[in-house]
Amino acid sequence: MDTRKVPVADGVELAADLWPPATPAPRSATFVLAHGLASNARLWDGVAARLTERGYAAVTVDLRGHGRSSKPDGPYDVPTVADDLAALIGQLGLDRPVVAGQSWGGNVVIELATRHPGLVRGLVCVDGGWFEPSSAFPSWEACREALAPPRLAGRRLADIEGHVRAAHPDWPESGIAGTLANFERFPDGTIAPWLTFERHLAVLRGMWEHRPSESYAAVAEPVLLVPVRPAGPGGRSLTRASAVEAARAALPRARVHPFVGDHDIHAQHPAELADVMIGAVSDGFFA
Questions:
Q1: How far apart are CA 86 and CA 203, in angstroms?
Q2: How far is it, in rounded angstroms, from Cα 188 to Cα 14?
Q3: Cα angle at 118 between 36 and 283, to 5 degrees?
Q4: pLDDT tens digits, one per residue of 84-103
Q5: Among 141, 126, 137, which residue's Cα sits nearest to residue 201?
Q6: What is the CATH code of the structural domain delimited by 2-282?
Q7: How far is CA 67 from CA 39, 43, 225, 236, 253, in A?
Q8: pTM for the complete prediction?
């Protein structure tokens, strides 16, 4: 794996991990993998490892404000973040990659396809791409009140790790390590999220202002929609089935492959998700 800092805008560099394939597959493709809000590239490690094992190149990336990437004061609207991804693809010389986005990242890749037609060969929206907080809350203030993140700065790493492991006992180690990579670590054993509270709110405001449903008809590339239904009666879903069906109906070329599990399905079941993505290449959906 080769890690690079890639300039994408004035004063902004994105940290990208380049995963070369073990042996290129006969019908090969490169996958660019974008994370969700307050997440980071490492959550995709398990998926990237599976892709390379099967003969596909992968690029995992920390979006602006997150992980190892630059942390400007702004802007954090969805079009700006989508333009960052387009610049990354250009700077790395990638030829029409398949671009996957999880959660907020799903909204970002929808915007990428509409702003930069022809740049990608297909999209994968992993439990995201249909989020419109403006339809769920009467005002930005109500959205902020409901969805503002907890203030975790100063918490002990050991406590955070214990909580993550207890909450996700069936996750592979790659998913646990990826989640813990959301935090900067200090010598005294405490942590702070790489995405600060203020920047988190700026990203959330960008989601509030973004309406992906208004862009579906303009997405010429095929889109694989991967909604996740929680396992068990006590699970909480961030996805409404009606929103997924509306996206499928409005997108010119779309298919749906649902999963049962956690919102971070890419961390929980990386090999299974990677195989579904590979299947969309090998059967010609992502031509």
A1: 18
A2: 28
A3: 75
A4: 999 999 999 999 999 999 99
A5: 141
A6: 3.40.50.1820
A7: 8, 11, 26, 26, 33
A8: 0.96
